[in-house]
Task: structure prediction
Amino acid sequence: MEFNYFTPKEQEEIAKKKHKNSHKSHDAYDDQEDSEDQNSSDSNDVYASKGDLESQEIYENVVESKENDNYEGQIDEDNMEFINILDELEETDSDEDDNEESVFSKIDCRGISRKAVIVVIIIIAIIAAIVIMPMVIHQKYVWEREASSDAAVSNESLEESMRETESAAQASKDAEESIKASESKAEEAKQETLHHNQEISASWDMIEADMSSPMTGDLQGADIVDYGTGKMQVDSRITSALDSIISGAKDAGYNLKVTVGYRSYKDQKVLFDKKVSSLVASGLSQDDAQKKASETVSEPGTSDHQTGLGVHLISSGYEKASAEKYAKTDCYKWLVQNASKYGFILRYPEGKEDITGAAFEPWHFRYVGKENAEAMDKQGLCLEEYIKELKGN
Result:
């Protein structure tokens, strides 16, 4: 038979106390089932639900007091003491739980267990991972594509730079080869020109007879023939050119004739010695007379007349005219302007005395061929200068 050691009034008071304390502690029990058992159990199970040894001892003392027939005198005092002790224990437990309060206790107060909170957090983490991971992967993909694009651009730039460098190197090589080819061609052309010029300078119409290239005797290999009515002699190879220039002058209104032509070495020596003798007779020494004579008469071997290619072309009426007077005539001017067309040049031009070694002679013309004459006329060269240029000196 079950006994209740508390009156109904006392039990009601204890229940109220417990109900009050249950609102003070949010985490008084671990689950809903324990809470329902405690609300429905009688006061004999109060100490068991609390699990407090001290409460159990007090409860047992109260029961023992009832069994010893002291119930009437002690029940109020002992029961109230027991109730007070229970209140203190519940308040102590409530304080400890408040100190340990966390996010879980705040959620538990709404009826959600710790396990449910953990599950929710895990679910949230999984959802976040599902949402964030694709974004991270996409961003990584974007970065990799950008890096790949930058690398591709860098590689293209490097390749373009290498191509430009190779192109520049090839262009430089081509330019160098072109320069070498041009230099080679120029050298070949120079050699060809030099060879050609040497052939020209060695040709019969470019023969020299001057102080730098004196003749030691009579001209060899030339066909000296009489020309004109004055019994002048010339190289047979220039007679046609003489006919042409005299005919051209006649058409221009000038009557030209050849007054001096070929002279042998012997004839030139006689002429020079005669001049020296006349100067000695005038009072000069032999050396001074020879020096003075060479200014107007060439020494033997150095006269252009010995080539058979040099002639004096004089207009009628000026056979005895001085060089200064003859240089002012229209006939002389025509000759200077047109002689090269017929293959002739002015052999001893004014202003070239130091080069030719002879004084200015406005009537002395020399056949060198049409090509050479026009080249010398264009460049303003005398025979010595032209031959020197041909030889490359």
Summary: The first helix runs from residue 8 to 24. The longest strand covers residues 310-315.
